[in-house]
Amino acid sequence: MNIIKTVAVTCLLGGLSFSALAAKEVTKEDVQKMNLQKIGTVNTTAETTSPMDAKRELSKMADEKGGKYFLVVAGREHGRFSATADVYK
Questions:
Q1: What are 33-66's pLDDT values in tens digits?
Q2: Secondary element (H or E) of residue 89
Q3: Facing residues of 69 across strands?
Q4: Residues near 88 by Cβ (< 8 Å), separated by ≥ 6?
Q5: Which residues of 19-30 are buried (b: 16+ CB within 10 A; e: fewer)?
């Protein structure tokens, strides 16, 4: 029983730490209000099966690029989903 509790706590803390580090999606208004600086653009491949998967991938890519925020600027559905986002810090 202690092993199950340990695994559950570890998973919970791992999920919290990922969300704490993940780049956050913003709107155009947020970009202007927060005076964010654009540092690049990221694109997902057509491998994601839902819009949420595409956003999660964009967030991960924005993190890797050094960004704290991303703004989805284009999305496409063609049996699968792909998207493009501007990355900001």
A1: 999 999 999 999 867 888 999 999 999 999 999 9
A2: none
A3: 24, 88
A4: 26, 31, 36, 37, 38, 39, 67, 68, 69, 70, 71
A5: eeeebeebeeee
The answer for residues whose C-beta is within 8 angstroms of residue 20's C-beta and 6 or more apart is none
Distance between CA 13 and CA 53 in Å, rounded? 21
Both tokens of 29, joined, read 């208004």
Per the document, the length of the chain is 89
Where do the domains of the chain lie, and which CATH numbers do they carry?
21-88 (3.30.1660.10)
Q: Tokens standing for 19?
A: 């969300």
User: pTM above the 0.85 mark?
Assistant: no
In the chain, % of residues over pLDDT 70? 75
And the tokens for 45?
Answer: 């491949």
